[in-house]
């Protein structure tokens, strides 16, 4: 059941945001039609705000789909990090000592093969478990780009 609730909720939120952006653009156009200079300025601002908002939603959704695809492929190829044996806090988060050991192991894999998107993916996940989300995002971007390049090359 939850498998369908999250995507449905995300779809509703995105549709609501698109409706709001549409209303902002309509108000912006109404402002542009006004003879007042300040209203024209607000109209331009509303249109720009709506376009930036729509762009940011597009980027967020696109990145989410890319992450789902690369995660599924890594799992299918057996490259997902195995965190089942790591010590956890009552909240479910991995204990820092265990995360640091996992990170050290995955770092050695990365040093041996830094160009492989699978290893970059594993390193990004290890950074995330170790609490360094900024570096994790950086390596996940590299992994997504590497996986896309490999997929493109395999198509011909």
Key terms for this structure?
2 domains; mainly alpha; 81% helix; 156 residues; membrane; transmembrane helix; Putative 19.3 kDa protein in dapB 3'region; 5 helices; transmembrane; Serine Threonine Protein Phosphatase 5, Tetratricopeptide repeat
Strand-and-helix sequence, N→C?
HHHHH
What is the approximate shape?
Answer: elongated
Please tally the β strands and state the result. 0
Return the structural class: mainly alpha
Q: Averaged pLDDT, please? A: 91
Keywords: Membrane, Transmembrane, Transmembrane helix
Protein name: Putative 19.3 kDa protein in dapB 3'region
Write up this protein.
The chain crosses the membrane at residues 42-61. Keywords: Membrane, Transmembrane, Transmembrane helix. This is Putative 19.3 kDa protein in dapB 3'region. There is one protein chain. Helix content is 81%, strand content 0%. With 156 residues, it is mainly alpha-helical. It has 2 domains: 2-59; 96-155, Alpha Horseshoe (Serine Threonine Protein Phosphatase 5, Tetratricopeptide repeat). α3 (96-112) packs antiparallel against α4 (117-130) and α4 (117-130) packs antiparallel against α5. The longest helix is centred in the middle third of the chain and has 40 residues, at 37-76. It is elongated, with a radius of gyration of 22 Å. The model has no long low-confidence stretch (mean pLDDT 91).
